[in-house]
Amino acid sequence: MSRQCQRSGLRFRTGRLDLNDIWDFISNRRSQLVTDSYLHVSAVIQCVLLATVIGVVVGVAVYRSPAGSALATALSSAILTVPSFALLGLLIPLFGLGVVPTVIALTLYSLLPIIRNTIVGLAAVDPAITDAAKGIGMNPWRVLGRIELVLAWPSILTGMRVSTQLAMGILAIAAYAKGPGLGNLIFSGLSRIGSPTAVPQALVGTVLVVILALILDAIYVVIGKLTTSKGIRD
Q1: What is the C-alpha to C-alpha distance for residues 125 and 123, in angstroms, rounded to an integer?
Q2: CA of 123: how far to CAs of 119, 151, 153, in Å?
Q3: Cα(202)–Cα(130) distance, integer angstroms
Q4: Is residue 122 within 8 Å of 63, Cβ to Cβ?
Q5: Under a CB-based contact definition with an 8 Å cutoff, are residues 54 and 111 in contact?
Q6: What does the alpha-carbon distance between residue 77 and residue 73 come to, in Å, rounded to a whole number?
Q7: Is 16 a domain residue?
Q8: Which domain holds residue 131?
Q9: CB-based contacts of 226: which residues, under 8 Å, 6+ apart?
Q10: pLDDT of 86-140, one tens digit each?
Q11: Residue 12 belongs to a domain
């Protein structure tokens, strides 16, 4: 037993990791890993959907105005210049720990790609198409909903795709504010470096974030093919 402990201690001190340690950790914590993965994906999807509603509304409101578009893009860009730890630190005194500051932070960080791509997508719609729609009696709201947003949808979806990948990583950092997801697993492992399960815990949490991000990205590709007409894709 003592020799095994000595070998284990030497392995972690020298930075090496046995794959058996990782497999044992996954086997012993399977239920926790499934729960944390579900919470991570669920939080990201909900925040990106919220950011999409806000971003599309903002994009629709400003895309015809160069000054308004520049202002909306600049403000949403400024949010990304704030380090996630700093933003969470500012939100914690106002909203406490847990879900609320996490949702606010993720939503704010997800806005820029969606706002920018909404503006770009709507601005790229051929005016001849909208003029023809108005010529057959469609009011501005119907033109927006049935023509412009439909044509801008691939661009908006791309913005959602980028925001999702961004939010997947930021949510891991949101464990600092006791947010849900795999970040708690990573932070817990990093805080216990030196213990037998520390490195497997941090590594498994990190790898799961990457795998889930790739799965969500593939889902976006499928959604894009199912919801975009062939003519627009071409």
Answers
A1: 6
A2: 6, 10, 12
A3: 53
A4: yes
A5: yes
A6: 6
A7: no
A8: 30-229
A9: none
A10: 898 899 888 888 889 999 999 999 999 999 999 999 999 888 888 888 888 888 8
A11: no
Residue located via tokens 């990304």: 80
Length in residues, the chain: 234
Q: Residue 18: what pLDDT? A: 64
Q: Are 194 and 11 in contact (CB under 8 A)?
A: no
Q: How far apart are alpha carbons 203 and 42 in whole angstroms?
A: 21
Check which CATH number belongs to the domain holding 93 and give it. Answer: 1.10.3720.10
Cα gap 178→187, rounded to integer Å: 10
pLDDT above 60 (res 51): yes
For tokens 């949490």, what's the residue?
Answer: 205
- The model's pLDDT over 173-208, given as tens digits with 9 standing for 90+, comes to 888 788 888 888 888 877 777 677 778 888 888 999
Residue located via tokens 């925001």: 163
Give the predicted TM-score (pTM) of the model.
0.85
Amino acid at 139: N
Residue 22 lies in a domain: no
Question: Which residue pairs from 10-13 have beta carbons closer than 8 angstroms and sit at least 24 positions apart in sequence?
Answer: 12/194, 12/196, 12/198, 12/199
DSSP secondary structure letter of residue 181: S
